[in-house]
Amino acid sequence: MKFGGTSVADIRKIKNVASIINKSYKKYKLVVVLSAMAGATNDLQKLIDQIDYPSSKENDLVLTSGEQVTVGLLSMVLNKMKIKSIPLLGWQVPIITDSSYEKAKILNINKDNILKYLAEYDVVVLAGFQGINTEGKITSIGRGGSDTTAVAIASSLKADRCDIFSDVEGVYSSDPNIVINAKKIDKISYEEMLEMSSMGAKVLHTRSVELAMKNNLTLQVLSSLTNQEGTFIVNEKKLIEKEVVSGVSYSKNESKITISGIPDKPGIAAKIFRILSRNNINIDMIVQNISQDGISANLTFTVLKKDMKISKNLLEKNSEKILYKQLSINSEVAKISVIGMGMMSQSGVAEKMFQTLADQQINILAISTSEIKISVLIEEKYTNNAVNSLHSAYRLGFNN
Amino acid sequence: MKFGGTSVADIRKIKNVASIINKSYKKYKLVVVLSAMAGATNDLQKLIDQIDYPSSKENDLVLTSGEQVTVGLLSMVLNKMKIKSIPLLGWQVPIITDSSYEKAKILNINKDNILKYLAEYDVVVLAGFQGINTEGKITSIGRGGSDTTAVAIASSLKADRCDIFSDVEGVYSSDPNIVINAKKIDKISYEEMLEMSSMGAKVLHTRSVELAMKNNLTLQVLSSLTNQEGTFIVNEKKLIEKEVVSGVSYSKNESKITISGIPDKPGIAAKIFRILSRNNINIDMIVQNISQDGISANLTFTVLKKDMKISKNLLEKNSEKILYKQLSINSEVAKISVIGMGMMSQSGVAEKMFQTLADQQINILAISTSEIKISVLIEEKYTNNAVNSLHSAYRLGFNN
After folding, report:
1. Which of residues 52-71 of A touch B (CB under 8 A)?
2. Which long-range contacts (C-beta less than 8 Å, at least 24 apart) are formed by B94-97?
3. Which of B44, B51, B77 lies at the smallest CB-CB distance from A77?
4. Residue ranges covered by each domain of chain B
5. Is B68's CB within 8 Å of A69's CB?
6. How far apart are CA A114 and CA A101, in angstroms?
């Protein structure tokens, strides 16, 4: 079980976590992974920001203090309820990571130590987000990393399941803030979940889903506040009866860059993307088309909004190498995705998407497809309209 | 150097600490011991109090998270100033303690590890208050324990000096809140300092003074806000020219208990004190006198105010064993002490104390003496008057 910051935000909520544990600890041996109290890590980050000197080793040391508080408090509450528990920090397990401070990778977990404690105690309460490197320094596995800690521990112990508790009831067919009848999904495949979370469905840390997929570990995303089943994230083989499309998601994190009038010869696109990738800028959707004069081409692609400015500078600085006529950028765009396992083997999914958008007079600026996803780039102002129309068209809502 | 919670209460103050370090680090190799930010430990204690389940192991785990924040932040600031530093937690040194959670004793410090870091870095920044026991669990050495950490580290490294920075400028001849011309003392012996701090002069943790005395380590108590020398606490042999009386202190922490009409025969006092000591109640001032009938005696003694109620209950419950006539208690008392090395070999110190109080019409309820202290118990309402009169009588003020 993993509980996020909002589930351990105060003593009342920590007692609620203890009551959830109380319902299960006689049936299962439990490892409970906790985040810091909601807000605590942000407060520490604000102190760090006042110093304005990036030094990731010290960052990790400061930021990992928050879970020490919550594991101690929960363990106290459990002891009071006569549930035998032991709190453990990352270095006490130990959870060995590499030395990439602020985004460390877990290299090894001392499983035997955890099993030893599980034999002696009802519940092991573990600090998420943190580890220790081989030099004995504290590392963090990045913001939101407690999900990854939980999945790594569950995988290493070959747990029956890993339940991720937060303040949402599961994964939805679309963002409930903009689609009124968005429906909680009962079961979803790892791959679909990955597409969902990469699109900003902030239910799960992406790395944790990848890790669960690799280890074939069943995840459940559920709320610590209601007493209901959440969304199970499983191997696709376990999805017997399955809708073709599971959800519609969107992202406003990207900007569109169009380079016009580049020579239409091999290697130019590669040259452009090499310049960007060398500067750690990832490119997402790409469309290349020949311009009307038949000699030069246009190239359109998207980068993350935060990388837009530096991308523009890099392209301008290298204008002599690339030999383009014009560079235009647009940040007022949104990427809309339809996600579903096996949609490629089912005809008509893409057609329905394009037709639905056309019916709404929404122009498509770029398209990209994968095995389980079709994404289109549109003007940002049409986001709500597009997401709602697609959600209805695929009959994803609870009253369809 | 040790900096208390008020000296690291925010980033501005942490930068001030860094500037103090900046003045010294080229002259000395420095180990800097920090407390948690002022208020941080209290905030954590409030969370613990809401659970209302004393479990000292978890208490220590939660409370020791505060120093992790300050050592990380100070190290960041120092790095920014190009002062090479490394932050260390108790378990990273390690500082090995016994397993008396909440009041652990330091058993061993890995000095070689600290020396290794001192060779590589300009400054080692160390979390105070915390250690680790042989089971690998985090322990704390009690509230205010960072002083003790600093002295233990300095002793183990055979440091030239241990400077304890706080928000006071040193040790005063009396409480400046009630004696207007109380004077900062330049030098004082360990023994005098011990008497001062046991009387409530909250400049230093008592254990830290005992440890410094044992290791003959010179301490300096000074302010992190002014750029001035503080009070040096030294071996008495280093006190060449020395006033007989160094200070006048007071305590309102005690209550007086009088048991009248007890049989005047051997063993009764021992019986009474055994009952109390078995319940961990310490007795301080004791006066026994024969009552007028010549057969029975009266016994007067003081206990800490917090132990008063339980002492009364215990004595009443055991009234048949002790066979007393009457039990009376008084919490409106104050203990006034005159402290000075070698006062016993100097005639007239005690006489001057009694005469001064008599001149003020202040009645003495009990007296106790030691090598370096004379204490009297008086009615609490006379405290200010008594302290000021004595401070003048011994000419301790700065305009005497």
Report:
1. 52-53, 55, 58-59, 61-62, 64-66, 68-69, 71
2. B94/B131, B94/B132, B95/B130, B95/B131, B95/B132, B95/B149, B95/B152, B96/B131, B96/B132, B96/B133, B96/B134, B97/B131, B97/B132, B97/B133, B97/B139, B97/B141
3. B51
4. 2-167, 237-400
5. no
6. 24
Whether residues A136 and B92 touch (CB distance < 8 A) is answered with yes
In sequence order, the 6+-apart residues with CB closer than 8 A to the CB of B241 are none
Tell me the two tokens of residue A373: 């996803």
- Chain A neighbors of B64, CB-CB under 8 A: 68
Q: Taking CA atoms, what residue in B is nearest to A54?
A: B76
Torsion on CA atoms A312, A318, A320, A323, rounded to nearest 10: -50
- When computed from its CA atoms, the radius of gyration of chain B, rounded to whole angstroms, is 24
Per residue in B85-97, pLDDT (tens digit) is 999 999 999 999 9
CATH fold for domain B237-400:
VC0802-like (3.30.2130)
Contacts 24+ apart (CB under 8 A), A110-119: A111/A156, A111/A157, A114/A31, A114/A88, A114/A153, A114/A156, A114/A157, A115/A157, A117/A86, A117/A88, A118/A29, A118/A31
Question: Quick one: pLDDT band at residue A382, thresholds 50, 70, 90?
Answer: very high
Predicted complex ipTM exceeds 0.95: no
Mean pLDDT on B63-69: 96
| pTM recorded for the entire structure | 0.82
Q: Which among B326, B330, B328, B329 has a CA at the least distance from the CA of B261?
A: B326
Domain B2-167 has CATH 3.40.1160.10: yes
Task: For residue A220, list its beta bridge partners.
Answer: A163, A232
How many other CB atoms are found less than 10 A from the CB of residue A265? 9
pLDDT tens-digit map of A67-112: 999 999 999 999 999 999 999 999 999 999 999 999 999 999 999 9
Give the separation between CA A231 and CA B328, rounded to whole angstroms. 70
> Containing H/E element for B249?
strand B247-251
Which of B37, B43, B47 to mutate to probe the A interface, most A CBs <10 Å? B47
